[in-house]
Amino acid sequence: MKLSRVTPCMLLAAGCHAAYVQFIDCSDRSNASTLIPESFHAAVVPGRHAFEWRFDVVVGQLGRNACEIDSADVVPGFAIVDYNHDLEHVSGQVVNRSCRTTDRRGSRAKFTIASTFNRSSLLDTFRTTLELTSQDHTTFSCVKAVLTPTAPKTIRLLSLWLPVTTFILACIAACWPVQQNQSTHFKNTRIARPINLLAYIQFIFFSGSFSLQYPGFFQPLVGLCSWSTLMLPAGVVEATSPYPRAGVRDGIYEHNGTVTGAPGLELLTQMTGSPVKRQSWMNTLVLSLLIFFFLYIAIFIRYRSSNDIKVSGIRFAGLRSQLKNQYWTVMRLFLSCFMLPLSAWATYQFHDGYVFGYQTSIMAMLVLILLLTSFWWSWSQDSDMGSLIVQNPDALDGLRKTPRQYHALVLFSLMVLRGSVIGGLQTYTSVQIGILLGCEVIQLISMVYWVGLPSLVSLAGILSVSRLALFSLNTGFLPGVAEHSVRMLVAYIILCGHLMVLFCIFLLPTTFNLVILVHWTSQASAPGDNKERSSSTRRLFQLFGLSLTQHQKIETSLPLDIESATKCIPSDQLDLKNLLSEMIVKRETSFFSQEKADIASKSLSEFFTDVQGESEEIISKDPAIFSDSSSTLVPTKESSFEIRPATERSLDDLAAHLLATENLAIRNESLDHDLDRPINEYFISSSHNTYLLGRQVATRSKLAGYVATLSQGCRSVEIDCWDGRDGQPIVKHGYSLTKSISFRSVITTIQEHAFVVSDSPLWLSLEVHCSPSQRDIMAGIMVEVFGPSLLTEPLEGCIQALPSPNQLRGKILLKVKFAPTKNVQHINQDLLQSLAVYGAGKRLPRQGEVDIMRNFVYSVSETSFKKHVDSKQPLGLTDTNHMIRVYPDPNRVDSSNFDPLKCWRHGVQMVALNYQTDDSHMSLNQALFHGSSGYVLKAQPEVKHIHLQVDVLLARGIQGLSTVGPVYVEIELLAPDLLSPGVRTAAVPPLEQHTCFDQNLIVSIETKYSNLTFLRWAVKTAPDVLVSSGLAKLDNLKKGYRILPLRNPSRSNIEGGQLLFRI
Fold first, then answer.
1. Rounded to the nearest 5°, which phi and psi values hold at 821?
2. What percent of the chain has pLDDT over 70?
3. Does 864 share its domain with 825?
4. Are residues 213 and 260 in the same domain?
5. What is the pLDDT of residue 851?
6. Which of 407, 462, 804, 851 is most open to solvent, judged by the fewest CB atoms within 10 Å of its CB?
7. Is 423 helix (H, G, I), strand (E, B) or coil?
8. Of 937, 955, 989, which one is at a domain's C-terminal end?
9. What one-character-per-residue DSSP string does 327-351 give?
10. Is the same domain home to 711 and 638?
11. What's 953's domain CATH number?
């Protein structure tokens, strides 16, 4: 590999005095004396009023020796049509003549001709006809050419250094130390700007590459010194060019930097060699691997330095795990920033390879497949994969993870398509430009769809519109669309447009941000500024290692200060109770003192009342706090005669009590457990396809599904009923490969376990596919087995409103939904239907067709419900006794769940989930109904600002779960209408017995659904690898020093896994 081709940095600022020439032979080849032009090279020195031209013309002669021509007999003359269409005849002078003879090509004569053209205007371009005649005016040769001098030096330097300077300033702003009072939007905007600018520079680079497809096509912008192509000088065009369709065949030969007659991408590959050869393509591959390796090492060093990992503690297994985890980070950055050129180079046409008759390379196709596979693998492994691809990620801060993923996937696909079109359709420029315009339109539509119309007036929206507008001007370069002079004008308009975008959208905001940052830095005078600045710089560098979501979470936390965070970490031999005692004394100075080992009874009582939020009645009844005998505040190793009086409790005793498993933060009963409202005013814990324990297909229906679901407090189970072959109804998942169980066994199992956990009313959601005879059998079985527990008649006094859960305690209610049938009258007279006293099943009615005289339970799939909500049509069920049950789509064959928050937001009473799948959505369901007997009273939406302060103190039980180094705790608030930015602690090394954080976090959110707000906590390792987590409804959390349980990533409880918080 020639490294001089890879790094031609010194040439970028070199002076240029080249002219761009496209010429065609207009000689009369029938004349034996005609000189055939084979090369036409031009150089120009611009003056104030004229151009001094020097042309090198290489000619040959048919059947004769061209070296026999006498230069004294050759008289050059030029007919010039300038930009203003003025015709001028200019004479020339042959200043030099040379001749060369080779065995392969024969003799060739080279004439050097000098001439002077007057300048016409700013857009200097000339259509020239050069005739070489004899003294007696006999024409020897004719050349028609288009001459375009390079752009003026000012424009060339501006087009080079404006992007370079802007990119450097944007990187400086992105890596500037973060101040705590900076908004998340401000931080994210300047973090994303270098990536946006890099994408725009690539856009200029590739759009400029189209300039060589046709004569005069954007020529002033593709000079030796122009940033848009970074091209190097190259030799003349030969008739053996591998691109005859685009170059030699149409008689157009191009010189002075236009390389071969090849179009477009040829210029872009001059840094590594033209990819028409496999050796040169290998240079490109090696360069890509070098960049990838550099990113890998840089990000790995950043990770180790930011987490303060000691070299002495490195083991091979740990190092291997760290390197493996950094792969996703590097791949995310590499693909986000370099996928466009990589896909263009990978699909570039090789002249010696054909697949299905198309000029391409099997190697290039394999590389493109490898790139796509790498992305998909990375995206599937990392939930935030591809976030950096989004060119305006700050606009997506409010989106949830899944929309952000799909938006990134759309933009990534457009990036790959752009590169493939640029590389693979070089000889089809009209199609090429059309597809690329379509890509710009799709990107703009995608942004409007995901972010909204207001995004069009943001800087990101203006950037997308500018890209579309500037690129659409390229249509002016297509054949037959405009004359050459118009093309020149369009070229300068595009150049001015690029400069305006770089200046207004990138340089000005970057400069403004730097001024603000410098001002904030100068105002910072706190003692800890230097430490915060160093920490913040490390975090800001993580833009090249973390997705936008991860970065946002880090930005909203306290400064990452490992030294400060590790001050509280004791040795493994230090008593954990002493450590917790120190944390308590530091925070509760009004109750305790480090100088006094014992705690007065009054101080202890005030502590439990004011800090722990325990009532006087509970404190007086709790033997674990004030008992003189078996109190948890008494060290268990002390003998009975050493037990101290209740008035002499120690801080260690208090710490032991707070570390006990009984001190859980999650209440077992809700604060307001009112069950006297009508039943349709409650959220009801509901199950979907309860009889299944696995997937929705190819599995076995089991009674254990009902036992497990009812034991979790579920108050609505589903039974799919079908005709049995022996005349007895069965339960199975219809139209699938699931095995069946008898209906009677299901009813018997439900009777045995219906009210073991809770005596709240139980709903049976029957989906009936049976014949009328077997429906009667079903009704008889339920009446027989359930007996008086089955509600068969409406309750007295409940005419205007539905009865309350308290009125229905110990009762089983039926919700009956029949399969579609034509005999509606027969169903209305059905015995089974008559048992559905308060649960007649029905499909969601159209607006205005709601029956307000009766009550129904409407069943609707998640997709249908989403469409109804997205159309912003009211459900029409306000002030009625109707209820809604939303169930998962049939295409969820893996028994996955949908987000119940979206349904609870709109007041859906029964959100039926697959209880057999313990995923994040099921965790929300469990958190909502925890300690509620399966019924939670709905509340009217009301805007409230929730401000939560959490002190993260200790973590236990996570040792052995983290093999990649330091861990941190992250918390966030989750509401139906908003997800708060996550906040996190500093990363600290985990110890064998416990991990100490001792840090304060503050998280806030403004929502209309405070009763549906949840706190999610997680222990993670950088970069954002989940170790353990938990979730709880905010209303169910107790204040004070409390224990939060932890679950591993597979959602199994971690033995001894606990987080000690102060809430």
1. -145, 155
2. 57
3. yes
4. yes
5. 58
6. 851
7. helix
8. 937
9. HHHHHHHHHHHHHHHHHHHHTPPPT
10. no
11. 2.60.40.150
Tokens 């078996």 correspond to 630
Say what the pTM is: 0.49
pLDDT tens readout for residues 404-421: 666 767 777 787 788 777
The band of 733, judged by pLDDT with boundaries at 50, 70 and 90, is confident
* Same domain assignment for residues 373 and 387: yes
Single-letter amino acid code for the residue at 941: P
- Whether residue 164 is found in the same domain as residue 250: yes
Angle in degrees, CA 5, 9, 11, rounded to 5: 90
Amino acid identity for residue 676 in this structure = D
How confident is the model at residue 683, as a pLDDT?
A: 92
Provide the sign of the torsion angle of the four alpha carbons 700, 702, 706, 707, taken in this order.
negative
Mean pLDDT of 873-892: 74
Residue 456: inside a domain, yes or no? yes
What the block records as the tokens of 409 is 């996937």
Check whether residue 179 and residue 101 sit in a common domain: no
* CATH number of the CATH domain containing 34: 2.60.40
Asked whether residue 953 is assigned to any structural domain, the reply reads yes
Quick: pLDDT tens for 591-608: 776 666 677 777 777 778
| Single-letter amino acid, residue 517 | L
Q: Degrees (nearest 5) of the Cα angle 712, 716, 722?
A: 120
DSSP 519-574: HHHHH---TTHHHHHHHHHHHHHGGGTS-HHHHHHHHTS----HHHHGGG---TTS
- 150-186 pLDDT per residue, tens: 556 676 667 767 888 888 888 888 777 655 445 545 6
CA distances from 146 to 83, 125, 128, 687 (A): 11, 7, 6, 77
User: CA torsion sign, 727 to 729 to 735 to 739?
Assistant: negative
Strands (E), 962-1024: 967-975, 978-979, 983-984, 994-1007, 1014-1021
Last residue of a domain, one of 921, 937, 953: 937
Q: How far is CA 835 from CA 764, 795, 972, in A?
A: 11, 13, 46
666 - beta bridge partners? 1037
Same domain, 127 and 164: no
